[in-house]
Design goal:
Elements: E1 12-15, H1 24-28, E2 33-37, E3 39-42, H2 64-67, H3 70-79, E4 85-88, H4 91-95
Antiparallel strand pairs: 1-4, 2-3
Length: 96
């Protein structure tokens, strides 16, 4: 099955320590990632809490618009040379 047709659900995305600022995620998914200074961040516009940060501690859920970018978020994570982009489907939130 072609990559673009895979069903991907991503409810949260965050960036762990170690970003090298290569810009891959911003080039791949500019609606979710930004790069104002040095390390990549998750855009506030794509998060329910509206805060632009690495989302490492908050782990804010994505907005519907952010979730619509799931395939590009996954592609960003797969191509990250230092493997610091993490995501999940929010299942852990529903289980608790």
């Amino acid at each position: 099955m072609p990559h673009a047709q895979l069903m991907t659900t991503i409810a949260r995305v965050w960036i762990e320590d170690g970003c090298i600022g290569c810009g891959w995620c911003i080039m791949t998914c500019p609606a979710v990632f930004t790069w104002p200074q040095g390390d990549a961040l998750i855009r506030g516009e794509s998060r329910l809490d509206g805060v632009t940060s690495a989302n490492r501690m908050e782990r804010s859920l994505l907005t519907a618009a952010g979730q619509a970018e799931a395939l590009l978020i996954a592609e960003s994570a797969e191509g990250c040379p230092v493997e610091v982009i993490r995501s999940d489907d929010g299942t852990a939130l529903r289980a608790g």
